[in-house]
Amino acid sequence: MKRYSYFALALPMLMAMTSAKADLLSDIxxxxxxxxxxxxxxxxxxxxxPQTRQLVGMxxxxxxxxxxxxxxxxxxxxxxxxxxxxxxxTGRADVLVANLAYTKTRGNQIQFSDPYYVAKEMLLVKEAxxxxxxxxxxxxxxxxxxxxxxxxxxxxxxxxPVTFQDAASAFLALQQNKAVGFVTNTMTGIKMISxxxxxxxxxxxxxxxxxxxPIGVGMKRGEPQLLASVNxxxxxxDDNGTIDKIWDTWIGPNTxxxxxxxxxxxxxxxxxxxxxx
Length: 277
Fold this sequence. Notes:
The chain is α/β, with parallel strands linked by helices. About 40% of the residues lie in helices and about 25% in strands. Helix 3 (about 60-70) packs antiparallel against helix 10.
């Protein structure tokens, strides 16, 4: 009887200790450091500075701002595109800031913060087709990099994907009239249109997006306290202009990417979009 009573008393304490151990936000606060995973070499998001060899970029600045807002120091964790989900799922990093777009598959692997911007898959066409709408390209051959969300968006909009192993080859297909359009993200599209113009080829971007890709901070599933802290931090960074400043520095209107930040930090559920796989 006494043994049972002891177990009954000890069980709640054991459960509390287990719960505390599972609370990643408490661990971060206790150690006073946020382990933030970023790309090892994907400019302008995170790549080595040629002079200092230190990582710099939009995502690096976002990590620094997030850690400051949460009241802890920052430890950057360089990772690759291929390993960025695993670094969170296995617990090697606390958060992932790597231009991470929400998809159904990723949403089942890790949890996402409220998006701090919405990337768009866009259709590039020859200048003669600039006045058309996406509906005009249903059933038409459209090129994209194989296995990407760009390819998924073509199927989503009723086009016929013509895929290649890299973006350069897919882009060339448009230039050589092997496809009537080429799909990529807005940033890449703007750069490619500018480069093509230098080569005497006039291209345009259809205004209506092929697909929306909310970009957020990735975290391990089952960490509601950390999720709430990151979301409140992002909202504060949005309200005080920190995100706008970082945006303008790296991909804003006065950079080669000429991107205008249109969306604010908002719950993922409030966005009207069809998630890609």
